Amino acid sequence: MKQLRIPAVYMRGGTSKGVFFLAHDLPSDPAVRDRLLLRIIGSPDRYGKHTDGMGGATSSTSKVVILSKSDRAGCDVDYRFGQVAIDAPVIDWSGNCGNLSAAVGAFALSARLVEGPADGMATVRIWQANIGKVIVNHVPMQGGEVQELGDFELDGVAFPAAEVKVEFLDPAADEEGGGQEGGGAMFPSGKRIDVLDVPGVGQLEATLINAGNPTIFVDAARLGLTGMELQGDVNGDKALLQRVEAVRALGAVAMGLVATTEEATAKRPHTPKLAFVAKPASYMASDGKRIEAGSIDLLARIFSMGVLHHAMTGTGAVAIAAAAAIPGTVVSRVAPVGADGRVRFGHPSGTLSVGAEAREEAGQWKVAKVMMSRSARRLMEGWVRVPAE
Question: What is the pLDDT of residue 184?
């Protein structure tokens, strides 16, 4: 049996990393493509290590991205994101990765899918095909190449790099049901707070919002948590993770994304995300840095692929900004967006500031844009090798 040789780039974007491909280098048949991508990542791995693949055996590092030039008016590239399960033969194409969204522009420029200035700022308009939304990357250029090195520091990433400014345009699903694959409106139930009756947990208030990715927000205390937790405090507690998945799965049903909780767990592990929030408090981040309560507006944590995320997903940050900008949500009653349109939150690896432009029209809230800064860097480029079927 011979091995295939497929062009690929291994990239970090924000606090995630994944394998990037051009669409024309992959099979056109989705089933064949997904089997190939699973083998490239090294999934399913019954040992949970991804030893025989490019994956990193965490939700932040088990990812694939497919890009092509866009035929859509006003967009430069089409971007598809796949979240690869570690121990199951599943690639979930239902949502986006906000962190890897920051690497799409750099990849597109380096692959000559789009031309940028020799020096200055390149603007890359991206069609996120999973969720039907536009994302804009502002990528620094120097000497005709993407500038990847710099002094911008991002909590959750060990080394500084060049800043990439990311704008998520109209990140919430529209009221007519467009945008997201399932779920429809920004608030699928039409309410800013729903009450979920979760077996083994009881009744708890939740905000179900389509922004960035479908996201469920609950108060930390209702899960028996403080909001200051790190991965080590949560991810070894199987009973807690089972309760958390019960909440997430029921929320997925309530959002109209799946028909049953069983379907949510088996076939849609990537979205919706479940996040919990709490009032500011001082805590020690995962690198030992002390985060002072006065430096943040709220505490926020998010689960990704069944475990607590080591920082904050990019789409989670989008959802936080949108929910904080709209009165009456679980997030805004803890920390409404400030006068500058920004909210600062503490996550397991440190802090992040995100901004939102929101307005009320005829009694309905619209989020025009969410902004944040990330960084991105090519880690390796060349070819991946994968056994032929």
Answer: 56
Residues 6+ positions from 247 with CB-CB distance below 8 Å = 196, 198, 201, 204, 206, 216, 218, 223, 274
Phi-psi region of 188 (alpha: psi -120 to 50; beta: other; left: phi over 0): alpha
Q: What is the mean pLDDT of residues 217-246?
A: 97
Residue type, 145: E
- pTM summary value: 0.89
364: left (phi over 0), alpha (psi -120 to 50) or beta: beta
Cα Rg for the chain, rounded, in angstroms? 20
Distances (CA, A) of 99 to 68, 162, 212, 375: 19, 14, 11, 9
Angle at 101 between CA 95 and CA 105, to 5 degrees: 140
Contacts of 144 (CB under 8 A, 6+ apart): 118, 119
**CA distances in angstroms from 262 to 208, 265, 308, 386, listed in the order given:** 19, 5, 21, 32
Q: Are 244 and 274 in contact (CB under 8 A)?
A: yes
* Nearest alpha carbon to residue 253 among 316, 318, 199, 331: 199
Number of Cβ within a 10 Å radius of residue 88:
15
